[in-house]
Amino acid sequence: MTRTPVNVTVTGAAGQIGYALLFRIASGQLLGADVPVKLRLLEITPALKAAEGTAMELDDCAFPLLQGIDITDDPNVAFDGANVGLLVGARPRTKGMERGDLLEANGGIFKPQGQAINAHAADDIRVLVVGNPANTNALIAQAAAPDVPAGRFTAMTRLDHNRALTQLSKKTGVPVSEIKKLTIWGNHSATQYPDIFHATVAGKNAAEVVNDEKWLAEDFIPTVAKRGAAIIEARGASSAASAANAAIDHVHTWVNGTDEGDWVSMGIPSDGSYSVPEGLISSFPVTVKDGTYEIVQGLEINDFSRARIDASVKELEEEREAVRGLGLI
Ligand SMILES: NC(=O)c1ccc[n+]([C@@H]2O[C@H](COP(=O)([O-])OP(=O)(O)OC[C@H]3O[C@@H](n4cnc5c(N)ncnc54)[C@H](O)[C@@H]3O)[C@@H](O)[C@H]2O)c1
Ligand SMILES: O=C(O)C[C@H](O)C(=O)O
Predict the structure, then answer these.
(1) Does CATH number 3.90.110.10 belong to domain 157-321?
(2) Of the listed 188, 198, 250, 252, which one is catalytic?
(3) % pLDDT > 70, the chain
C-alpha cells in the first residue's frame, strides 16, 4: 500500500463511543476501504491504561489499513498532523442533569483542544464534535483556532437525522433507503427540529404522505428530539454504538459526498442562511461535493417550521452567550 495514511485523532478514546468507533475507523469504514489510517488516541491520564487496552485489541484485529496507534494525554501531541479530529471526550450527561450544566465543565476541555488543533493540525483538518453540548463545544474549539477556517469545525446531528429517518420509515412503512431530504435544524438537544416538509418518501412529499400534523407535533418531533434522554433512561448511559455510527456517517459523507438527489444534516457555522445568526454552529441541510459542504438553499420554510427553528436557534444563542460570559469564546 503506497497511499499516505490519514491521521485520525479520537478524543475520549477509552469511553463508550470510542470503543464503538475505533474499530470501524481502523477497518476502513470512516474514510474508505482503500485509505490507510493512523490513529491518535487522546485520553485523560487516569484513562490511558484503558486506552492501551483498546489499542491492544485494535492490534489483535490485524486491520490491513491500520498503520499505527499513538496514545497520549497531551492534546498538542494528539493533534500533531491530524487530518481528521473526532472530539468525543467529554462528560456525558447523566440522569436528571441539564445540558446547560455541562457548558462550564466541557468548556475546559474544548478550548485547549481547539488551541492544539490551531497550533499542530494538518492544513486539511476536519473536526467533528460529538461530545455534548456538541454545537457549543464546537464553537468553543473553533474560537480557539483562529488560523483554521471556521467551517472545518462541525457538530454532530447525524444521529438525530438517522433517528428521524427510522421514525418516518416506521410511520410510512417505507424503508429508510427510500427516504430522502430529511433535515435536522438547530441544536443537538431537545429543541432540535426534525423537518419532513421537504423530505420525500418513495418519491412523494413526506408531509403529504403522513398527512397527520398531530403525529408530527406530538409524536415524531418529540420522539426524535428526546431520543437521547430516552436512551439514557433505558440504558443508564448515553447512546454509544448509534452515536459512533453517526460519527462514521458524518465524516464519510463529508469526505466522500452526498448521494445525488439527497442531503444530510450537519451542525456547521451559519452563514446567515434561513435567518440563523452568522457564526452559530447550527444544524442545516447540506450537500457535499469534493469534500466541501454547502447549505441547501431556497427551501420554503412554513410557519410551523419557522417557530421551531427559531426556538432551537434561540437556545444556541443563549448557549453562546453563556460561554461568552465564561470567557470561553
Ligand atoms: N452528538 C451526539 O449525537 C451524541 C450522541 C451520544 C453521546 N454524545 C456525547 O458524547 C460524549 C461521549 O460519550 P461517551 O458515552 O463515550 O462517554 P464516556 O464517559 O464513556 O467517555 C468519555 C471519555 O472521554 C474521556 N475524556 C474526558 N475528558 C477528556 C479530555 N479532556 N481529553 C480526552 N478525553 C477525555 C473520559 O476519560 C472518557 O473515557 C458525551 O458528551 C455524550 O453526551 C453525543
Ligand atoms: O448524551 C446525551 O445527552 C444524549 C446524546 O446526545 C444522544 O443524543 O443520544
Answers:
(1) yes
(2) 188
(3) 97
